[in-house]
């Protein structure tokens, strides 16, 4: 099975930029606008640690995917990631890491590769530390009445993009 089951498409309708997303399971997408979380998808789980998924033996199908059509603005930061990120890093820390990578207030100055690498590195640090004090996965386990400490060792796939106009794309510079 593929670790990242998210499909996104940006379409311009009457000058409105729409990001269309189809997502199934515990992968997710976050949009950061003006230094704040604008949108965050929710996980799809049958029960704790039993996400919807596509593959052999699964009763889930593409029609079970969540679908979103979101208005996005130039400069919005889109983070699409597997559960290895979201199980290990709280949304607020994802936001803080993102903010720390700005060279200026302009998102065009954001080093996307550096941000992606930093998110993956932090998720792996937490996942590999069984004594880490708190993670989203650990918090959910405790809510289910389970004893669990630290992060969750899992795949970590992160894709980061910034919404921009075609005229400002790297291919045109």
Query: How helical, in percent, are the residues?
Result: 10-25%
Uncertain regions spanning at least 5 consecutive residues = 1-6
Radius of gyration, CA atoms, in whole angstroms: 17 Å
Distance between the termini: 37 Å
Content-based structural category:
alpha+beta
- What's the CATH architecture name? 4-Layer Sandwich
- Mean of residue pLDDT? 87
The CATH class label is Alpha Beta
Q: What is the CATH topology descriptor?
A: Phosphatase 2c, domain 1
Helix-strand topology string: EEEEEEEEHHHHE
What order do the helices and strands come in, and which of them pair?
Layout: E1 6-13, E2 16-23, E3 28-33, E4 36-40, E5 45-47, E6 50-51, E7 66-72, E8 77-81, H1 83-86, H2 91-100, H3 112-127, H4 136-143, E9 158-162
Antiparallel strand pairs: 1-2, 2-7, 3-4, 3-8, 5-6, 8-9
Index terms:
173 residues, alpha+beta, Phosphatase 2c, domain 1, four-stranded antiparallel beta sheet, three-stranded antiparallel beta sheet, 9 strands, 28% strand, disordered N terminus
Overview of this protein structure:
There is one protein chain. With 173 residues, the chain is an alpha+beta fold. It has one domain (6-172): Phosphatase 2c, domain 1. It has four helices and nine strands. It has helices at 83-86, 91-100, 112-127, 136-143; strands at 6-13, 16-23, 28-33, 36-40, 45-47, 50-51, 66-72, 77-81, 158-162. The chain has a four-stranded antiparallel β-sheet. A three-stranded antiparallel β-sheet has the order 1-2-7, with no helix packed on it. The protein has a two-stranded antiparallel ribbon with strand order 5-6. A hairpin with a 2-residue loop joins strand 3 (28-33) and strand 4 (36-40).
